[in-house]
């Protein structure tokens, strides 16, 4: 059998248990989470930093989004304390919202939406316990399009706030959906923005939105020629498609893929492409049958790989989409790697189980990935190095030496020579020994087994004896 090295989410599939470690090594350590040396402490900091960066990258694109007024609070002397509204400030704001003057009402609506970006406790109580939503509903049900827009702006920022604030915005959902069906593009854009913020809050909120029929008008708006509106609509759709039980069949039955791929074919704006890719990421994250439908529609996102590489986080959803496709059945992966220029721009998919196919590995090798991956695995930041290492290990896991192909045999022998010569020079033994200090029992056992099997003496001992001696050492 051929075994591939996989990421942590797949490692649970391992079926073989490591041999028990020898007394020679297990007796030398105690299990705790305290770093044993500066190198281990540095490694843990790097891992934590990588996790935080990965979380921030996704939040940068998919988290709730406030909408700011550029013409409010332009005075440089404005500070955070100015937003700490008092009770009398709230009363003044309410008075302005109910003022007979349209100009005064619009000004108060702008002030309210600006304050809602970072609401004070007094303002939160006004939204949760007061009649704020009732006042905004009056504007939404009116006939003045500018007042409707500014009120929807307020709802957008309410929905972007804490859950207790977002919950109050649910009663506004019918108005938001009706705006999507209208012809006022700024109002459609703002309504889609508010819906996207509500959808982020949780599965029950997404279910309520879908039950109210939000998908039909949103997907219809993908026909718009306004790129900013399409971008906002995709923000809402990606948040509606996230999570388990997202009922993706509804998305596909409405022909969402044709709309998305059409925009990918003609749109060049990186922000729009990124938002579309987030929708595709969630559409490909559930079941293989949905991935199959996307692959059958075409792989237009491939053309945007190179342009997005220089835009940092904007490329993340595109990479995740291809990763989802690569982890699906083999025929999808083969279609993916046959796309022009795909292999020259992408390495993440190699960690998939599909990498065990000889034709895939041949293309990877011929494209010159081995030296590139080797450099990445030693010089880039932690999470990228990890993916490159998975790729190299998957390539190395193939039985090249037992192949009948002379070039593959030569490659396999070259890999063995590199392995045997580099392990001592690169302090591989010290690296193995450092793993024996980790808390994870499986990792410790595997490291000890490798130390004894390849760099020391093998002992035939009783497992109970090993455990007893280890416990005695830990009591000392």
TrEMBL record:
Matching InterPro entries: ARM-like, ARM-type_fold, Armadillo, Importin-a_IBB
Chain segments carrying region Disordered: 1-43
GO molecular-function term, one example from the UniProt record: nuclear import signal receptor activity
Keywords on record: Protein transport, Transport
Stretches with biased composition (Low complexity): 1-17
Highest classification ranks of the organism: Eukaryota, Fungi, Fungi incertae sedis, Mucoromycota, Glomeromycotina
ARM repeats: 213-241
GO terms classed as biological process: protein import into nucleus
Family matches, as Gene3D superfamilies: Leucine-rich Repeat Variant
Stored SUPFAM superfamilies: ARM repeat
Protein's UniProt name: 6447_t:CDS:1
Domain (IBB) ranges: 5-77
Organism: Diversispora eburnea
Domain of life per record: Eukaryota
Keyword flag Ligase: no
Homology family: Belongs to the importin alpha family.
């Amino acid at each position: 059998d051929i075994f591939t090295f996989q990421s942590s989410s797949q490692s649970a599939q391992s079926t073989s248990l490591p041999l028990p470690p020898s007394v020679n090594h297990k007796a030398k350590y105690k299990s705790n989470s305290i770093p044993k040396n500066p190198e281990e402490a540095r490694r843990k900091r790097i891992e934590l930093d990588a996790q935080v960066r990965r979380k921030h990258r996704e939040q940068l694109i998919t988290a709730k989004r406030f909408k700011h007024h550029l013409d409010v609070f332009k005075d440089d002397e404005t500070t955070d304390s100015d937003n700490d509204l008092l009770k009398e400030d709230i009363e003044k704001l309410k008075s302005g919202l109910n003022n007979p003057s349209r100009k005064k009402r619009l000004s108060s609506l702008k002030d309210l939406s600006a304050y809602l970006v970072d609401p004070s406790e007094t303002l939160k109580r006004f939204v949760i316990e007061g009649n704020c939503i009732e006042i905004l509903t009056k504007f939404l049900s009116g006939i003045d399009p500018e007042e409707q827009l500014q009120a929807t702006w307020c709802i957008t920022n309410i929905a972007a706030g804490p859950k207790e604030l977002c919950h109050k915005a649910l009663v506004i959902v019918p108005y938001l959906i009706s705006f999507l069906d209208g012809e006022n593009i700024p109002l459609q854009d703002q309504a889609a923005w508010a819906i996207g913020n509500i959808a982020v809050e949780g599965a029950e909120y997404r279910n309520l939105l879908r039950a109210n029929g939000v998908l039909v008008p949103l997907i219809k708006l993908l026909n718009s020629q306004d790129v900013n509106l399409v971008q906002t609509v995709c923000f809402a759709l990606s948040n509606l498609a996230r999570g388990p039980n997202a009922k993706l069949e509804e998305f596909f039955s409405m022909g969402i893929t044709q709309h998305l791929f059409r925009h990918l074919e003609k749109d060049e704006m990186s922000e729009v492409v990124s938002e579309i890719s987030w929708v595709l990421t969630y559409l490909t994250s559930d079941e293989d049958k949905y991935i199959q439908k996307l692959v059958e529609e075409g792989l237009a996102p491939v053309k945007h790989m190179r342009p997005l590489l220089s835009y940092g986080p904007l490329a993340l959803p595109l990479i995740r989409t291809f990763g989802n496709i690569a982890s699906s059945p083999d025929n999808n992966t083969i279609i993916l790697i046959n796309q022009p220029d795909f292999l020259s721009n992408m390495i993440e998919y190699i960690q998939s189980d599909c990498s065990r196919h000889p034709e895939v590995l041949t293309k990877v090798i011929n494209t010159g990935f081995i030296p590139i991956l080797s450099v990445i695995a030693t010089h880039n930041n932690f999470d990228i190095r990890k993916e490159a290492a998975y790729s190299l290990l998957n390539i190395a896991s193939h039985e090249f030496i037992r192949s009948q192909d002379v070039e593959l045999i030569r490659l396999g022998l070259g890999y063995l020579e590199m392995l045997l010569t580099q392990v001592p020079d690169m302090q591989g033994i010290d690296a193995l020994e450092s793993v024996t200090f980790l808390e994870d029992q499986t990792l410790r056992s595997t490291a000890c087994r490798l130390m004894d099997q390849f760099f020391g003496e093998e002992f035939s001992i009783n497992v109970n004896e090993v455990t007893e001696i280890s416990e005695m050492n830990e009591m000392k």
